[in-house]
Design a protein that fits this description.
- Chain A is mostly helical.
- In chain A, helix 2 packs antiparallel against helix 8.
- The relative contact order of chain A is 0.18.
- Chain B has one domain.
- Chain B contains 4 helices and no strands.
- In chain B, helix 3 packs antiparallel against helix 4.
- Classes of the chains: A mainly alpha, B mainly alpha.
- Chains A and B meet through helix 1, helix 2, helix 3, helix 4 and helix 5 of A and helix 1, helix 2, helix 3 and helix 4 of B.
Chain lengths: ~240, ~100
């Protein structure tokens, strides 16, 4: 029973494994470009399991930002996981004791949440362990490969690969922005505000700039284009 | 400051964000504003992180701009994540190579 649930989780995690392998490759490149070692990059991926939060975190580390900045940036960027955890908490089966909830909390990502929340009926701890294990493996392995490649490859190649993670971010935000006016407006406001702060107020560090721009844009959109369906969170960014 | 402290703080904050609702909160969020805000936040965060940083991501303004244009076009026609990312890097590399010829 446990084994079959675990294997089902592993199986459902295979596409996530492959996706994470490539996304975290971009993160590994970005991390070494910002002066981190392969081990440090791998440790960040193992302990955080989130792309945007990690990318912002690496930027803050490279800039020598404050701990306050790091805490605020992680809260704002990863806030959506609270909503996913909240939604998932309604779907857990009775065998989810406190220790098991504490373990599964580690692995709430956009993709794992999306996969788990569309399963019919309640979800079991061992299903979650399976899907989280294989997804984490892909995330950390990709980071190590990307970070190692970043240190081995010629400068022209690793420079060009530095755009990969941003390319993925674009691939995540453009398709929903095409069909959802609220997202389109939010994306445009955030980009414009971010560019404005970068050029007009360069003394504001990159971590705080992201927080300010993202909060303003999302709050404006929440007022202008309020959502009726609170469960619609599965189409966010990777990991 | 030690990188280990940064990593520990990052990890702790990210874990708490996921853990607190999953273990403590049993009620649903009723605020329409908060639900909408949480819905839009991933997109505005990614957008603010990408722009204008993407134009400095390859160390050359021209190759970054070419890679960005390729990513926008391919994302617009609905190409998968990995295709968009690799094409952005590939076109940025080619643009950087072409620049060196002049």
């Amino acid at each position: 029973m446990k084994l079959s649930k675990f294997l089902k989780g592993l199986k459902h995690g295979i596409p996530i494994f492959l996706g994470y392998l490539s996304v975290s490759f971009g993160f590994g490149i970005l991390a070494v470009k910002n002066g981190l070692s392969v081990t440090e990059a791998a440790a960040i991926s193992l302990f955080n399991l989130t792309s945007a939060g990690q990318a912002a975190g690496v930027g803050i580390i490279a800039a020598g930002g404050s701990i306050t900045e790091m805490i605020l940036a992680q809260i704002i960027i990863n806030l959506r996981y609270s909503l996913m955890s909240l939604s998932l908490s309604q779907k857990l089966d009775k065998s989810f004791t406190l220790p098991r909830r504490l373990i599964v909390s580690y692995g709430i990502t956009d993709e794992i949440f999306a996969m788990a929340s569309v399963q019919p009926g309640r979800i079991t701890p061992w299903y979650m362990y399976g899907i989280i294990l294989i997804s984490t493996l892909g995330w950390v392995l990709g980071t190590i490969l990307g970070a190692a490649a970043g240190t081995i490859l010629p400068a022209e190649v690793s420079d060009a690969l530095g755009i990969m993670l941003y390319g993925m971010f674009i691939a995540i935000i453009i398709p929903p922005a095409k069909i959802n006016k609220g997202i389109l407006v939010g994306v445009l406001i955030a980009a414009a505000a971010s560019a404005a702060l970068y050029y007009l107020a360069p003394f504001i560090s990159s971590g705080f700039a992201v927080i300010i721009c993202a909060v303003i844009a999302a709050a404006l959109c929440a007022v202008l284009f309020p959502k009726n369906d609170p469960a619609n969170v599965e189409d966010g960014e990777s990991a | 400051m030690s990188i280990i402290i940064y990593i520990a703080v990052m990890a702790a904050v990210t874990y708490l964000i996921r853990m607190i609702p999953l273990t403590l909160v049993r009620k649903k969020i009723r605020s329409r504003f908060l639900n909408s805000f949480l819905y839009y936040i991933p997109y505005t965060v990614l957008s603010a992180m990408t722009f204008p940083a993407i134009f400095y991501s390859t160390g050359s303004a021209v190759s970054s701009a070419v890679g960005t244009a390729a990513a926008l076009i391919l994302a617009y026609i609905g190409m998968p994540l990995i295709v968009v990312a690799l094409a952005a890097a590939g076109t940025a590399y080619l643009a950087g190579f072409v620049i060196t010829l002049f």
